[in-house]
Amino acid sequence: MLIIGIKGTRLEGHERDWIRDPRVSGVTLFARNFSSREQVAALIADMRTLRGHPFLVSVDHEGGPVQRFREGFTRLPALARIGACFEQGAARAQALAEEHAWLMATELRAIDVDISFAPVLDLARGNRVIGERSLHAEPAVVAALGLAYLRGMRLAGMAATIKHFPGHGSVLEDTHVECAIDPRPLEALRETDLVPFAEAIAAGADAVMMAHVAYPGVDPGPAGYSPVWIQEILRGEFGFRGVVFSDDISMAAAESAGGIGARIAAHRKAGCDLVLVCKPEAVPEALAAQRGAHPCDPARVATLCGAAAATWDDLVADPQRQRYLERVLALDGHAVPA
Questions:
Q1: Could you give all domains of the chain from N- to C-terminal order, each with its CATH number?
Q2: Is 294 part of the annotated catalytic residue set?
Q3: What is residue 256's predicted lDDT score, i.e. its pLDDT?
Q4: Which residues does 126 contact at the CB level (< 8 Å), separation at least 6?
């Protein structure tokens, strides 16, 4: 039921105990866990030895400002660079979205990361933390490019996690440090922010990450705490049958539910399958609060585990990768590294 963060580039003794705990369904990695490609691959292999499969290794590796692993990996352009191409040609922009996704996902799968929490389907409408992480301001464009991104991830053997449902792009606040409220009624959201999510869900998106944004015109609390958003709208109206993630419960906008245990309980009651506890210092309290609780069904976790992947050497030798690199890196004006 928990996806946890760990402290550094090697597992400490108590972290090994956390990973063995059946209430922990996976780990999410950050820049603090990375010093080189070889090191992070060894870290993942160590975790696999402790838990095997299904155990979810995840990361935020979108490109642009949010890419946890850099040295030794392709420096992926921000998604906004793809959206900027759309007006010059929809087909080219969609191809670039698919190629960007394939590059991102194949590199992560080559070191045995299961999923990147991608793609961002929030609209580019001024949010301080979303910014150039978004594909575009127009819902139809985000929907079209989002579907292409899903195709690229699937071709690479990676499940897609669309975020942040029902849309984080049209409020200004950064939910890491402040609360965010979107006062618009549901009908206004249906015509804008919800459009890309509806399209991606219809196309079979594997997972959804909830927003720590409150939409009081629909339900008073943040969406991740809302059975209206998760059970009635996401699962009922949209027919979503995949895995629902919370966003990180350490964020300021998650504090409305109370302490760590209360936040986990509120997410679980609302319908979240997996709850992110990204700060290692919060993990002991999270585990204590879930003593006696049932773990997430391993079969649900398994739906997000990565498919068989190429080795890094085989991936680098793939001529398709070279073609994709040339086109995608040109978005930032870069050439393929020698």
A1: 64-275+311-332 (3.20.20.300)
A2: no
A3: 85
A4: 169, 170, 172
